[in-house]
Amino acid sequence: MANVTTTPQASDPRLKLQVEQQLGDFHLSVALNLPATGVSGFFGPSGSGKTSLLRLIAGLERPKQGVITLGEQTLLDTRQGIFVPPHRRRIGVVFQEARLFPHYRVRGNLTYGMRKPAAQRFAEIVELLGIEALLERMPGTLSGGEARRVAIGRALLSEPQLLLMDEPLTGLDGARKEELLRYITRLTQQVDIPVIYVSHDAEEITAIADHLVVMKAGQVRASDKLGALLQRFDLTHELGGFDAASLLQGEVVAHETAYGLTHLALDDNYQLVLPGTSAPIGSHLRVRILARDIALALTPPANTSYRNQLSATITDFITLPEAPYTVELRLSIGRFFLRARLTRKSWDEMGLAKGMQVTALIRSVSFTAC
């Protein structure tokens, strides 16, 4: 399917903001310059300020002071007295609750507030979200996941220049959560507007985000490409929910149907073997590998059940203060990096050191389309 397009935007639809907000004893102080494309994930524990920041961007609350710009448009400048109200910001918002009009059918909910240019893409967005069969149903008959897909469609049909999603999977059970995550992942790959996705869930963020903003106590702890932040030892505590994961990306090059396996080429020299997937040859997958699912060997072992054995170099290591008997390692595999975790005893007994060649044995790999 072709990308879902929007009306022409400013030459640089980048979101830039610097805001200060006092909410009781909680102080929010944030300065960000977010990418003009892709998904920016806001990650942090409850109470870190993620949703408060999203509401300031949407115009649902006014900060004590600050500036917010989207492309060439100034949405907020407290010094100059500029405040663009929410309905004029061209920002679509998807809340934790669907907030559909109970007296309108799904079709009516989708078309309410729909801008004229979006009418040409109505069928395309409906197909993208898999809600064709829901159009004549009332909101009260929808499951939680179905209702939220409708809410996402309504937000897209408002012709937004930015889409904000505030923990849209909250409250769903495992199967419905997984289903909606697949739809949202597909959506974020095909819309041509920047998306901000707020979550405290590791799998959601790693499946969706390109850029990551880590928040803590109203402050930005770090902001960079997702893969880069996952490799930083100094963020291990803040990213505890990620369980020290690494992200790789590759191309599907073969399927072993008889064994239920898929081969993913990371580059010309390295491949991974994954659990079988229906992804077509030539498509791309994003791979998430947990540090605890990697073992190391000094030489490639024979007669082992490990399907993935990759030649690697130890580029860095650290013993974290909160885990003095564990060693965290960074491994280079061609142009990619992996994090691994060993006991201090294994590190010493194997005589490991920075710069050594080892074989990375990967127990388990999870993946999403990208």
From TrEMBL:
Residues 8-242 form the ABC transporter domain. Residues 303-370 form the Mop domain. It comes from the Bacteria. Signal peptide: none annotated. InterPro entries: AAA+_ATPase (IPR003593), ABC_transporter-like_ATP-bd (IPR003439), ABC_transporter-like_CS (IPR017871), Mo/tungstate-bd_C_term_dom (IPR008995), ModC_ABC_ATP-bd (IPR011868), Molybdenum_import_ModC (IPR050334), Mop_domain (IPR004606), P-loop_NTPase (IPR027417). Keywords: ATP-binding, Cell inner membrane, Cell membrane, Membrane, Molybdenum, Nucleotide-binding, Translocase, Transport. GO terms for molecular function: ATP binding. Pfam families: ABC_tran (PF00005), TOBE (PF03459). This is Molybdenum ABC transporter ATP-binding protein. It comes from Halomonas citrativorans.
